[in-house]
Amino acid sequence: MDSADNFKADGREILIIDDEILNLRLLGELLSREGFKVRSAERPGMAIKSKK
User: Fold this and answer.
1) Is 21 helix (H, G, I), strand (E, B) or coil?
2) Are 18 and 44 in contact (CB under 8 A)?
3) Residues 6 or more apart from 9 whose CB is under 8 A from it?
4) Which residue stretches of the chain have pLDDT < 70?
5) Which residues contact 38 (CB under 8 A, 6 or more apart)?
């Protein structure tokens, strides 16, 4: 069994920054399926403002 098979995100948060909307959607969907809480931004300034 691969160690990646045992990995669970358990609600950890991840921030994705990309200027391509399709990339944000795809990465967001994939990471959400793995249990991450996903925040996304199209520009670095948006990412800084999105910090909770």
Assistant:
1) helix
2) no
3) 31, 34, 35, 36
4) 1-8, 51-52
5) 13, 14, 15, 16, 27, 28, 31, 32
Which tokens in the block code for residue 40? 């996304």
Domain residue ranges of the chain, discontinuous segments joined by +:
11-50
The tokens for 36 are 């991450």
* Residue 7 DSSP code: -
pLDDT tens sequence across 27-41: 999 999 999 999 999
What SS3 state is found at 40?
strand
pTM of the full structure:
0.69
